[in-house]
Amino acid sequence: MWPFSKKGASGFSSSSTAEEVTKGIDGTGLTAIVTGASSGIGAETARVLSLRGVHVIMGVIDMIGAKNVKEAILKENPTAKVDIIELDLSSMASIRNFASKFNSSGLSLNILINNAGVCATPFTLSKDNIELQFAINYIGHFLLTNMLLDNMKKTTQESKKQGRIVNVSSAGHHFTYHGGIRFDKINDQSSYHCWRAYGQSKLANILHANELARRLKEDGIDITANSLHPGATSTNIYINNRLLTGIVNILGPFIIGKLEGFMVKNVQQGAATTCYVALHPQVSEISGKYFEDNNFAEAHSRGKDMDLAKKLWDFSTNLIK
After folding, report:
1. Helix (H), strand (E) at residue 295
2. What gap in Å lies between CA 51 and CA 170, rounded to an integer?
3. Pick from 179, 149, 191: which is nearest to 317 by CA?
4. Is the pTM of this model over 0.85?
5. What residues have CB less than 8 Å from 314, skipping those under 6 apart?
6. pLDDT higher than threshold 80 for residue 116
7. Predicted pLDDT of residue 6
8. Which of 167, 174, 205, 314 reaches 20 to 30 Å from 291, CA-CA?
């Protein structure tokens, strides 16, 4: 049923679930923020982390969906620690408000999972007049990370526990515009391509993690930053592409797998690599790497371009001012 489930060096494969890759790991005393945790991979990530004893803060725009997820988690695991804070990643004001609320709560922060995303949306500008996919998938998480970093540094220093930042990217980063990032045409509607714009934002996630990893290492700070492809997963991220949604929902994993050359994962498998990178001891001390199917993977050459990463960092810093 799962022809591509050969185990990698980690001992896990594409068919491993989030529960399987975190089995036996005690996350008691850790606090994690998971963006986009009201459905799909984010919801499963929140569930499994809380199952391992992690105090999970769900950063979400869909408050009703998040409350349903929280109720389901508590029903399964009454001792789980789960909180919800509203977060609209298309709005810098909302991001700053979220960070302010969290930082003033007195909670420490060990793990930040930048998971939320949209896929192949029609051309739209965010509340800050930035192309929507670039805004939500990348810039919003760049700003959020910056605003939570001091908390993470303090937590790491006081707890003597390594902090981890996890950017959920996509194999879609292979399919982007010429040159990777269109710095001078982020908001150019005339040449906009929904899938290339998605790829651009996901490439940016990888470059962000790589440059952040370099800076943290240079400063001697015990926080890692990595990126990953969760695998093609049947979730509502494709809601803006009706054709793909129809294929996934109607024809199912087997048919779409044949069309794409791989199998579509369920959410339990889709959340596995995120949970692996966020919690597993094997990933301790590893930073600036790209993962897929719970193992190391090779990003596109653009995703390893440190000059491009530095240029993106400077561009992004100016954009969030």
Report:
1. strand 295-296
2. 26
3. 149
4. yes
5. none
6. yes
7. 84
8. 314
Residue 297 amino acid letter: A
Least Cα distance to 253 among 272, 274, 270 occurs for: 270
**223-229, strands of its sheet edge to edge:** 82-86, 55-60, 31-35, 111-114, 163-168, 223-229, 290-292, 295-296
CB 299 within 8 A of CB 173: yes
d(CA 312, CA 214): 14
What positions carry a catalytic annotation? 192
CA gap 265, 306 in Å, rounded: 31
**Which of 10, 9, 33, 34 has its CA nearest to residue 21?**
10
Write the pLDDT tens digit of every residue in 245-302: 444 443 433 433 333 345 689 999 999 999 999 999 999 999 999 999 999 999 999 9
Find the mean pLDDT for residues 135-152.
Answer: 98
